[in-house]
Design brief:
With about 500 residues, the chain is α/β, with parallel strands linked by helices. It has 17 helices and 16 strands. Helix 2 (about 50-65) runs parallel beside helix 3 (about 80-90), helix 6 crosses helix 7 and helix 7 (about 175-190) packs parallel to helix 8 (about 210-220). The structure holds zinc ion. Zinc ion binds next to loops.
Length: about 500
Amino acid sequence: MSDRLIIFDTTLRDGEQSPGATLTSSEKLETARQLAKLGVDVMEAGFPAASPGDLMAVQMIAREVKGVTIAALARTNEHDVTKAWEGVRDAESARIHTFIATSPVHMKYKLRKSPDEVVEAARAAVTLAKRFVDDVEFSAEDATRSEWDFLCRIVAVAIEAGATTINLPDTVGYTTPEEYARLIKHIRANVPGAEDIVLSVHCHNDLGMATANTLSAIDAGARQAEVTVNGIGERAGNTSLEEVVMALHTRKDFFGGLVPRVDTKQIVPTSKLVSHLTGILVQPNKAIVGANAFAHEAGIHQDGMLKNRDTYEIMTPQSVGLEMSRLVLGKHSGRAGFTARLNELGFDGIPKDKINELYQRFIELSDRKKTVTNADIIAIIEEDAQPKDDLYVLSGWRANSGNDGRAEAWVKVLIEGVDREASANGNGQIDALFKAIDKLIPGGCSLESFHIDAVTPGEDAQGEVSVRVRCGEHVYNGRGVATDIVEASVRAYMKALNRGTVVAEVTA
Ligand SMILES: [Zn+2]
């Protein structure tokens, strides 16, 4: 059994399937670069057969992101497998990941295939993928609700056809830690050739057991964990990368030193980037990356922490990159100080003219805010990472309100090179502004949720606004950051509406 654990990140594929999480190609590339910096072993960049946009994004990532295996997903048909190869063929290291459902309910009602047909489809897809690339993964979708004898049969066929990784997903979040461990051991003991391939696990969190199930399977011999940043994904989400990685680090004693190569100090920056780009907030009490994960509130805990941090702290905030958030910069820090801080935060390799642009925003911010923290700087950079190819660009706004409850707003939006203006009244400035924007942007979108947060403590903190917009059957998330919460709200709303246009293009 190998003593290396492979971290397979599927934030860009399974994670992007979260409601409203749709990313543009440039946002996907930005995320992929950060995942490479984080040090995942494999990243699933997308599902190329799904749409031309998906294929393009996978190709872009395969060409530009180095030092990591790039995987693409494919159903077990010729078209999908060929598209997957088209997606990853230029990668430094490429993998095709093909899957078919193996549970009775999926085979009968979803696939309408007999078990024999399913086995043959798996054999054909793995054989075809193997003609393109040596690194082939096969997943038996809904493995945890499949019959074990049938699983052994199909896994044996996939291995015989050349699969080098076999994944046994808990697609619907149904299994329990002990049962999953037994399944892993059963496959290992009963399938010829299982000793020579990597067994992989992929869990969903429907019953809140995704991390527990993943760790239990690793303990039983699985050597690849499929995870997403912040645990985003279909329904209740996937296994969270940060939880698995930090559990293996913190409990080396239990897991026999099976430590992934991930740079744990990049965990918090990656979490913030993914949350910002997808618009999916992290719950405050989320393990490892939640705002309260390292906050000690109760007096008795604080007392213990002051005497010895080990009393209540099993890992340090520094180890996950939640460092220095109190180190401050001011207007007098200068360009050199600002650039040095960018480097410390891991944003190296930014071109000089881009640094000048960011520095201007930093100066503007420090005019409005006494102290600028690392969290503020990260917010500036993430805000800047937004695509510049937006269809709708807000070029001006004004709003006012009084104690009679009435508010009026005016906006100017650049649409395909033409400035258009509109005014509206509303219940408060933000409502009036959104209504004015709605007059200019068609599509019948409506606001579903609105959430405001402070990036840092203090009364001059930057406000971070997250909105969710529904346009027909799709929902889109958007986030905006500014010291003025009205400005942050308008930016977030524009972002969500722009995201809608990207998706409309791709599916058209
Ligand atoms: Zn999944």
